[in-house]
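User: Can you predict the 3D structure for this chain?
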Amino acid sequence: MHHHAQDAVTSAGPGWIVPALVLLLIAVAIAAAWLLATRERDSGELAASGQKAPPNLDGQIMAMLHQAGRSLSQVEISLALNVPVATLASAMERLESSGWVRRTWDPAGYTYSVALTDSDAGVESAS
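Assistant: Here is the predicted structure, written as structure tokens:
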């Protein structure tokens, strides 16, 4: 009798383990697919479309601001240069930390207004 009880326990084990392993494998496959999709999305619209970021993005931004003669929104700059806002934001952070531009949050447009700093205006008039 003891032998039959042991057989019942042994045969009951694989009954729930196999479906659990199958569910685990499915969950891992779904998680891997989600991670790949997220990584592709986060790499930016430029990579997904096969386009490349403009080679001197910082210089192009500065030139746009000089030509405009006024502040521009990050969205305006993004659209004009055909660059995703996330890519542009990184460039803006570099320019701002270097002292070339000043960004001011515009809650009405839900974007930053970008202007050249006074120090940059002095560089332009000196050249």
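The two ends are 100 Å apart (CA to CA). Strands lie at 72-73, 101-106, 111-116.
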